[in-house]
Amino acid sequence: MTTTRRHFLNLATAALAVPAVSRRAFADGWPKDKIIRAVVPFAAGSTIDVIGRVVLDPLGRQLGQTIVVENRGGAGGTIGSAVVAKADPDGYTLLINASAHSAAPAAYPNLSYDPSKDFAGVAMFGVVPNVLLVGPSKDIKTAKDLVAQDKDGHMTFASAGVGSATHWAAERFLLSAGIKATHVPFSGGPAALTEVMTGRVDFCFIGISSAIPFIKNGQLLALAVSMPKRSPALPDVPTTIELGFADSDYVFWNGMLAPAKTPRPIIDRLHDEVQKVLALPDVQAKLGAQGVEPMPLSPREIDAMIAKEIVQNVNLAKAAGLKFN
Fold first, then answer.
1. pLDDT, position 324
2. Which residues of the chain does CATH 3.40.190.150 include?
3. How far apart are CA 14 and CA 270, in angstroms?
4. Is 163 exposed, middle or buried (0-12, 13-18, 19+ CB in 10 A)?
């Protein structure tokens, strides 16, 4: 009886150990000769797309594997994020996302995935100030001009989609300024910028990375940045806090996530490789030109930050009575 029981326990222990060993072996062999898919849940040319490609190109060379960027825009980034949430957690499908990820539950209470539980943080690329923009045809030269002209709530603002970081930043500013405006969502940042340039939509808040070229050539006028301090990329543009709009700052992070059950050795390997990429002088120069500022966090710190932001965003939306539609 004792011998049989001991034999059974040995077999059971061995059976339980197999998955762990196989996962480690799999992780040790990653990446194999297989394309890695990086899903960007916004349109090509959007802030996160621009920043993601700056990091992913050298990352692919370091890993010795091709990384293909797949733009799956729509619904404030939730369409592409849902694709990754349901993907095999094998290290070959990644999500390149931004603050819209943790704002999604406030805008879409019936999400098909959990932005916290269904993903694992991998690495942060940095933070990007959102900048308040108007077209040159508007008789608006400052953020206070905009607020003064919108006292009756007749203005419109563009975003990269309902619940996107561009939408959230604008809502925070409107709440702080005590004004209202009609939301006009688009499938991505480039379309939103175009409508503001032409004057068909009055203003927008969008990541500096995608806006800088148009600011420099005079197609858009930058009124303020929504960060606690001025951006080195636009040193002459004041912050919304400087201008007296309390609690209007919005941290627009950009980074990499993976399906939640991705083996930890793969997560850690990816994190380390991204840090090496971010330390490259040419990458630092490119990100600096896009207004990206460092935000070094470990994978577990990213998980904790996202979980905390989700609660904060949902509570803020309820308290302020924000309607994301």
1. 60
2. 31-128+253-320
3. 30
4. buried
Cβ atoms 51, 128 nearer than 8 A: yes
CB-CB neighbours of 306 under 10 Å = 21
Cα–Cα nearest to 227, from 131, 88, 156:
131
CATH architecture for residues 31-128+253-320: 3-Layer(aba) Sandwich (3.40)
CA distances from 29 to 91, 240, 273 (A): 11, 49, 15
Taking every pair of Cα atoms in the chain, the longest distance, rounded to a whole number of angstroms, is 91
pLDDT band at 170 (very low <50, low <70, confident <90, very high): very high
Rounded CA separation 125/51 (Å):
8
Architecture of the domain made up of 130-225: 3-Layer(aba) Sandwich (3.40)
Mean pLDDT, the chain, whole residue set: 89
Full-model pTM: 0.78
**CATH 3.40.190.10 residue ranges for the chain:** 130-225
- Which 3-state string (H, E, C) describes the chain? CHHHHHHHHHHHHHHHHHHHHHHHHHHHCCCCCCCEEEEECCCCCCHHHHHHHHHHHHHHHHHCCCEEEEECCCHHHHHHHHHHHCCCCCCCEEEEEECHHHHHHHHCCCCCCCCCCCEEEEEEEEECCEEEEECCCCCCCCHHHHHHHCCCCCCEEEECCCCCHHHHHHHHHHHHHCCCCEEEECCCHHHHHHHHHHCCCCEEEEEHHHHHHHHHCCCCEEEEECCCCCCCCCCCCCECCCCCCCCCCCCCEEEEEEECCCCHHHHHHHHHHHHHHHCCHHHHHHHHHCCCECCCCCHHHHHHHHHHHHHHHHHHHHHHCCCCC
Quickly tell me which residue has 């957690």 as its tokens: 89
Q: Whole-angstrom distance between the N-terminal and C-terminal Cα of the chain?
A: 68
Q: What is the pLDDT of residues 39-90, one digit of tens each?
A: 999 989 888 999 999 999 999 999 999 999 999 998 889 999 999 999 999 9
Contact 287, 106 (CB under 8 A): no
